[in-house]
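Support case: guanosine-5'-diphosphate complex. Customer-provided input:
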Amino acid sequence: MKNKKVFVITGATGVGKTTIARYLQENYHMPRIITHTTRPPRNREKQNIDYYFETPASFEEKHYLERVAYAGFQYGSSYEGLNHAWEKSDYTTIVLDTAGAVTYARELGNQAVILFITVAHPDTLIERVQVRGDNPDLVTRRITSPEFLRDVKLPEALENTAYVIKNDDWAITKTNIDLIVQDVMQGRALPHKLKLKE
Ligand SMILES: Nc1nc2c(ncn2[C@@H]2O[C@H](COP(=O)(O)OP(=O)(O)O)[C@@H](O)[C@H]2O)c(=O)[nH]1
Ligand SMILES: Nc1ncnc2c1ncn2[C@@H]1O[C@H](COP(=O)(O)OP(=O)(O)O)[C@@H](O)[C@H]1O
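Agent response - structure generated as follows:
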């Protein structure tokens, strides 16, 4: 059990969390833990693949390791989901807001590998989510939410534990993800000792 790890991918809307989770799935066969939400699905999102989309009532019936409100909707993840993913693979991923990432770091210690994703200019995030095709009303609600403003900054509680990845240039991001995965698989997992590509 101790050798099992969960890569917790966190950061603001549009920084590339889902893209990184997909990269880890495709290149390292790391299953992504699917979380629950009351947010309506976006254009291409599918039930049980992107999220377990819930009604407010069905959301309340589940048992959560942690749950948060984000830009007016509920999100939550369960121990069952984590253990189910660990049955399939020693390495798994989950995409969380920074409050969830802080909880995972606290509850799971060094079994949680925290990847904090950021970009040089937060304005690029608005363009990215528009290109992604998000509903414009929800984009406005999202980027003016206190949760968004909080998640563009690395939380103090994660300062010594998170790998900080700048996702401006995807080729550089991929190289850095590969370096981190090797670091973790070799049992080091010391963010401050790993020199990432600039
Ligand atoms: N704490 C927590 N955060 C979650 C969970 N599921 C998704 N999130 C986060 O909730 C935020 C909003 O997610 P979403 O509506 O899909 O928008 P996104 O930021 O564009 O991915 C993101 O930061 C997600 O990482 C969860 O179960 N717990
Ligand atoms: N390095 C990058 N440069 C440009 N666009 C990117 C980069 N990484 C991701 N994207 C795009 O930005 C949009 C938001 O990425 P996504 O992974 O959905 O973000 P998040 O899950 O953090 O909200 C997507 O359309 C994605 O293809």
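Helices lie at 17-28, 56-60, 79-88, 98-108, 123-131, 136-143, 146-151, 170-185.

Case will auto-close in a few days if no follow-up is received.
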